[in-house]
Write a sequence for this structure.
């Protein structure tokens, strides 16, 4: 059995969509597939129309059962989704997993133990991870033979990529098994020039660490999940279905190739190398305003923005900036319904610091008065805690997640 962990601490980059639809596409080729939801938000159940209120026991119960000396079989919690596809659903209890397992020596290998017991029953286990790098994600990495990192092909996504991969690499230093790590371009919108340029850059920098298949942005994919179906069932003729069928073929093909070559590097080495590539990529696209201006008048230059120029403009605009004795927080979340800030300055209580939406622009902002000092904070987008994607300054918190840092002078 190959175990593919779908990992990226960035929220909303397509992890669950990739997990559900890749699992379903693999099952359609006749493979026996287990989909494991390791995210307390239990989006796999939502996306596959498994009624949450009827999930009595989840992967959480199986994971902790051994430590309670009442071992449970995975089969007790499985839901059959289609022929060849079974789901081990998550539940909100999973958010307490880290606390429950504190002090237990084998806490990082719980998922691996569980999956080892069913390794002859399935060809693939696909593990959907939460948007954080805590114990749950670490369990997935320890169990993985493959890691898939979906990356949104927008410039915003690229900006935090190096940091994300670096953090993954830190986590993975503690994994010893051999795995294959691949970056997957997701939500690709071919109509935008920026997306096309970013994809070309990603390909040239990541080389064979990047899957050839790309997942296009396709509204049918979104619709399918709101109807609780994989895209293969919702619209078998859609572009989205073609992409996932192609992804399944590439993954199956890569396995055959790998078996022939028997060449697998360690997880750490690969993540370090792709993380360095991401850093090089950002370096290579640093703003060069002089060159642009000397070639053409400013007005024209503005009409033909390159990703580099756009990045320079965005980094001026989004993120944190000090204005007198206050700090302005400006960020972009076009699909969010609420954005809050939780930090040491408000006792980590997001409800105290909401951001206001600016018209229909997708921009959110607020100003907070803060005395001199260094502060740690996280953004809470639709209830989901995450680092500020426009602030490069971060540090790892005790939960293994990244806090954003700001300093008022
Ligand atoms: N290729 C795509 N085309 C269109 N919409 C997409 C595509 N991929 C993902 N989406 C949509 O983007 C949103 C976020 O995707 P998804 O939930 O898969 O991300 P995620 O990384 O699992 O998020 P989280 O970090 O919260 O777990 C969803 O509404 C989903 O339907
Ligand atoms: Mg998800």
């Amino acid at each position: 059995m190959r175990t593919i962990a779908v990992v990226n601490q960035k929220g909303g980059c397509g992890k669950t969509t990739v997990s559900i639809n890749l699992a379903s596409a693999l099952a359609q080729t006749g493979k026996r597939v287990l989909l494991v939801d390791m995210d307390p938000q239990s989006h796999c159940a939502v996306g596959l129309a498994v009624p949450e209120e009827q999930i009595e026991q989840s992967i959480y119960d199986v994971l902790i059962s051994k430590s309670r000396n009442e071992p449970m079989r995975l089969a007790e919690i499985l839901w059959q989704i289609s022929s060849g596809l079974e789901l081990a659903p998550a539940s909100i209890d999973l958010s307490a997993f880290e606390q429950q397992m504190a002090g237990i020596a084998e806490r990082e290998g719980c998922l691996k133990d569980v999956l080892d017991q069913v390794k002859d029953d399935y060809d693939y286990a696909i593990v959907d991870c939460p948007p954080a790098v805590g114990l749950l994600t670490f369990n997935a990495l320890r169990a993985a033979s493959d890691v898939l990192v979906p990356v949104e092909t927008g410039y915003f996504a690229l900006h935090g990529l190096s940091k994300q991969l670096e953090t993954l690499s830190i986590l993975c230093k503690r994994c010893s098994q051999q795995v294959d790590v691949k970056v997957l371009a997701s939500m690709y919108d071919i109509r935008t020039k920026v997306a096309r340029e970013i994809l070309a850059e990603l390909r040239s920098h990541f080389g064979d660490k990047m899957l050839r298949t790309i997942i296009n942005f396709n509204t049918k994919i979104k619709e399918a999940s709101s109807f609780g179906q994989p895209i293969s069932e919702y619209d078998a003729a859609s572009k989205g279905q073609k992409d996932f069928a192609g992804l399944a073929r590439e993954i199956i093909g890569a396995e055959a190739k790998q078996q022939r070559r028997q060449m697998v590097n360690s997880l750490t080495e690969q993540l370090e190398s792709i993380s360095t590539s991401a850093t090089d990529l950002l370096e290579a696209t640093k703003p060069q305003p002089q060159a642009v201006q000397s070639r053409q008048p400013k007005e024209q230059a503005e009409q033909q923005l390159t990703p580099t120029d756009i990045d320079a403009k965005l980094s001026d605009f989004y993120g944190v900036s000090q204005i007198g004795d206050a700090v302005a927080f400006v960020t972009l979340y076009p699909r969010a319904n609420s954005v809050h800030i939780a930090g040491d300055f408000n006792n980590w209580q997001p409800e105290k610091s909401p951001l206001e939406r600016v018209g229909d622009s997708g921009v959110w902002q607020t100003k907070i008065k803060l005395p001199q000092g260094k502060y740690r904070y996280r953004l809470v987008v639709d209830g989901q805690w995450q680092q500020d994607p426009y602030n490069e300054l971060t540090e790892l918190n005790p939960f293994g997640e990244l806090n954003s840092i700001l300093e008022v002078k």
